[in-house]
Amino acid sequence: MKSTFETMIETNYETTVQRNGVAYAGRVSYPTEIESISPELERGDFLGSSARLLIDPVRVAPTRGWLKLGLAFAFAFLVSSLSYAQNEIIITHTGVFGQKPVPVSLQGFTGEAEEVLKFDLYVQGFTFVAPDAAQYVINGTGGGAVAGSLTDKFANKMLLSRSYNGASLRREAHAFADDIVSAVRNTKPICGTKISFKSQSPGGSGEIYVSDFDGFDARAVTSDSAIVAKPAWWPGRMALFYTSYARGEPDIFYHSLSSGQRRVIAGYSGLNTSAAVSPDGSKVAMILSKAGSPNVWVCNTDGTGLRRVTKGIEDSSPCWSPDGEWICFAAKFNSRRVLAKVPSGGGEVQRIPTTGVANPTEPDWSPDGKWIAFTSQMGSFSICVMAADGSVPPQPIVSGQNPSWSANSRTLVYNHGPDGHQSLAVLDVFTKQTRDCHRVSGSNSEPAWAR
Amino acid sequence: MKLNKFVLPLALALVALVATTGCKHTPPKVTKLNGPATTNPAPPPEIPNTPPITQDNKPNGQDQLPNWPIENTNLTKLAAYTVHFKYDSAVVEDSEQANLTAVSDALKADSTGNLLIAGHCDERGTEEYNRSLGERRALALREALMKIGVDGGRIRTISYGKDQPVDTGHDETAWAKNRRGQFIWCTPKTAAQ
């Protein structure tokens, strides 16, 4: 029988070899978080990748039986002791995508509360196992209401005990899921957030929708029966920008969801589409063709201060780097689709290599700055993710298109399926776990995650 | 020896631990929190209704050709001259020159009419990529017409991406028909009055 210690390692860390033959000693707190590293290796070198504690089996063998005891204490002691002895513990950079999910046991919840918790945790890299195999135990204690606790079995510590009321069962369960995730892992809460998307009828016209991130509580915010496209959130506000052909031609609308008011911020001759608001909420990048080719332009959120940023033959789908310094977009070089970036204030366009995958479009830059997700077309469409600095090459994760990051920089919403019957789905990039969202009638696509 | 370096601190740790817990089969010691805290999740935001856009309720854009919004359109007049494109291409093929000449002639023959060029794509390609490609196709046709003497101020472009296929099939025959630029005859508002 395996010792718990061994199981813990195998459960949470990927198997791998030393990185470039160099051994790194340090302390690992939780699967993808590395607290300290020596010799000098910045946290950024690991980019949220899985890390592994690799202990020479010969050395571990004599202690196996003992290790069933006081795991947390022994583990911490072991690591801190060994951090002074090079090569005793090796942390390596490995399989970024396809990590093992965090095993949790979920007990005492039924019906909708259980469904919500399972969805929310699954799409953030958790998996549901028997209590024996779990690292964390979630216990529902509230009977009909949402109330529960979270216990770290490894540390023998209750991390959370809380009840929720005053809202719908779904919202309360989402709030508990947020508390669970933030107790386990220091990421931003996403379970109470909204998405916006388009739903299109077979004739081509559609409406812009807003819903919870899992697709529930959806409602159309337009009723124009026009072709619509590419909704984008104004960061931190209940406001959208989207493309609508309601005036006859594609225009970019600003739409306040709190007042219901809207206005055209870009209604120039030709194409006006693909709005993307800068992370500080001050600028809108978009595609306009008024100068003779579809290019990236930037204006203020009220449409003033318009200036052209790119001059290529055919650009599409701009997005912002989280520091607002760059606009990443799909361009065409030598008749081929490529990703490129340009300083948001204007300047030289630089290609972003996407070695190994073809026809990249619809980039979206993660809020933590580390990742760029995009659609790749190689026969069918794939959601691909690469490190923004190129240190992790692009990898197809799942079949689908139009990825949009949530605030936690690991969960994406995207659409997939045959044309005319697209569905939204939510994906945990690092474990590749994905679930379909609740859908509305029509073809659901081009989701944007509020953040 | 490294083995000792490893085992010794560990053994010490375990001794210390056994001393405090007594037995290795002790049930997990759990740190209890002081009573369940309560959270009241915020209510969902209220989203008021927005009236649809109609002729009477139509916000203004920044049109460079405000004199002829695409209202009075004639889809049939120039339908015979629809131009087709190769896959993923916005290059106007030489074989399409006769269609361009015919459209140019129609514009020269009737100076009250203007031209809307609608660019379309087949279904292979994402929505936004195709929206740019469709626009690029329409613009390529505009450039080709200007090259043979048509005033660019009489030509608008619109891209429908892959939203309006003429053939909803999923094979090369359908795709070839859908990769197209359509010429739509427009009568300006001012001229119609």
Brief synopsis:
The complex is a heterodimer of chains A (451) and B (193). Chain A is mainly beta.
Largest sheet of chain A: 5 strands, mixed
CATH superfamily of the largest domain in chain A: TolB, C-terminal domain
Percent range of helical residues of chain B = 25-40%
Specify the CATH architecture of the largest domain in chain A.
6 Propeller
Strand order of the largest sheet of chain A: 4-3-5-6-7
Q: Write the CATH homologous superfamily of one domain in chain B.
A: OmpA-like domain
Radius of gyration of chain A: 24 Å
Reported by name, the CATH topology of one domain in chain B is 60s Ribosomal Protein L30, Chain: A
Q: Which CATH-level-2 architecture of one domain in chain B?
A: 2-Layer Sandwich
Low-confidence stretches of chain B: 12-29
Average pLDDT of chain B? 83
Total beta strand runs of chain B: 6
Count of individual domains of chain A: 3
> Which sheet architecture does the biggest sheet of chain B show?
5 strands, mixed
Count the E strands of chain A. Answer: 31
Can you tell me the residue ranges of chain A where pLDDT is under 50 for at least 5 consecutive residues? 1-94
Topology (elements, then pairings):
The complex is a heterodimer of chains A (451) and B (193).
Chain A: H1 4-12, E1 25-30, E2 33-38, H2 57-60, H3 71-82, E3 102-107, H4 111-122, E4 126-128, E5 136-140, E6 146-152, E7 157-164, H5 169-184, E8 194-200, E9 206-212, E10 219-220, E11 228-233, E12 239-244, E13 251-256, E14 262-266, E15 272-277, E16 283-288, E17 295-300, E18 307-308, E19 316-320, E20 326-333, E21 336-343, E22 350-352, E23 360-365, E24 371-378, E25 380-387, E26 395-399, E27 401-405, E28 411-416, E29 423-428, E30 433-436, E31 443-449
Parallel strand pairs in A: 3-4, 3-5
Antiparallel strand pairs in A: 1-2, 5-6, 6-7, 8-9, 8-31, 9-10, 11-12, 12-13, 13-14, 15-16, 16-17, 17-18, 19-20, 20-21, 21-22, 23-24, 24-25, 25-26, 27-28, 28-29, 29-30
Helix pairs in contact in A: 4-5
Chain B: H1 2-21, E1 37-39, E2 72-74, E3 83-84, H2 97-109, E4 114-120, H3 127-147, E5 155-161, H4 172-178, E6 180-187, H5 189-192
Parallel strand pairs in B: 4-5
Antiparallel strand pairs in B: 2-6, 3-6, 4-6
